[in-house]
Design a protein that fits this description.
about 200 residues, alpha/beta, Rossmann fold, Methyltransf_11, Demethylmenaquinone methyltransferase, Thiol_S-MT, S-adenosylmethionine-dependent methyltransferase activity, SAM-dependent_MTases_sf
Length: about 200
């Protein structure tokens, strides 16, 4: 990683993704999680405090050392055990069928090889387990999608490879998941090109 991606970007993500308006969405995303959960893109731990009591462990996947350091106080205060269990969502260091569920929030946009990461999630989560997701992506309106295509090259440079145009439900379906629920909406107070949200649950197998 360069200086910007390693030292600056984790702080920017902690601020922008840590807005209080997103907390209710994080809580909605975590509803129904239970047992052992692998969380891709743990970042600075912004989902800590949103996990249901039924969650017994979080295996955090986070490539950024600075992101993990920013999470230290949240991890220490968590009532759910959390350990940094891996660095790369595209190559998860776990046996097959190791987890009851998976969680991603604002992560699928930046993973370089998203199909590989989703294949890994499907491998390590037990059949019938769930992937809970809160992700921005391709907008439902063509006028907004045109702006997303224009802005994406800049967004990828300044936001750690973040894509604006990924079809999140479509990517999950292509990876063999069954999308059981998805709420698609624009987050109020954010320009629409960056605010097309997908909040839902997909089932493995």
């Amino acid at each position: 990683m360069g200086f910007y991606d390693d030292r600056v970007l984790p702080h920017l993500i902690n601020v922008t993704c840590g807005m209080s308006a997103l907390t209710p969405l994080r809580r909605r995303t975590c509803v129904g999680l239970s047992g052992e959960v692998v969380e891709l893109g743990f970042g600075s731990g912004l989902n800590v405090g949103c996990y249901p009591e039924a969650v017994t462990r979080i295996a955090a996947i986070e490539p950024s050392d600075n992101g993990w350091r920013l999470a230290a106080d949240r991890v220490a205060s968590s009532t759910v055990p959390i350990d940094r269990a891996g660095l790369d969502g595209q190559r998860l260091p776990f046996d097959d069928d190791s987890f009851d569920a998976a969680l991603t929030t604002f992560t699928m946009c930046t993973i370089p090889d998203l199909p590989a990461a989703l294949s890994e999630v499907a491998r390590v989560v037990k059949a019938g387990g769930t992937l809970h997701f809160l992700e921005h992506g391709s907008a439902p309106d063509e006028a907004v999608r045109r702006w997303q295509r224009r802005l994406e090259p800049i967004q990828r440079r300044v936001a750690g490879g973040c894509h604006l145009t990924r079809d999140i439900p479509g990517s999950l379906t292509d990876a063999g998941f069954t999308v059981t629920t998805v709420d698609r909406f624009y987050q109020p107070g954010t320009p629409k090109s960056f605010a097309a949200m997908n909040l839902g649950v997909a089932t493995v197998g």
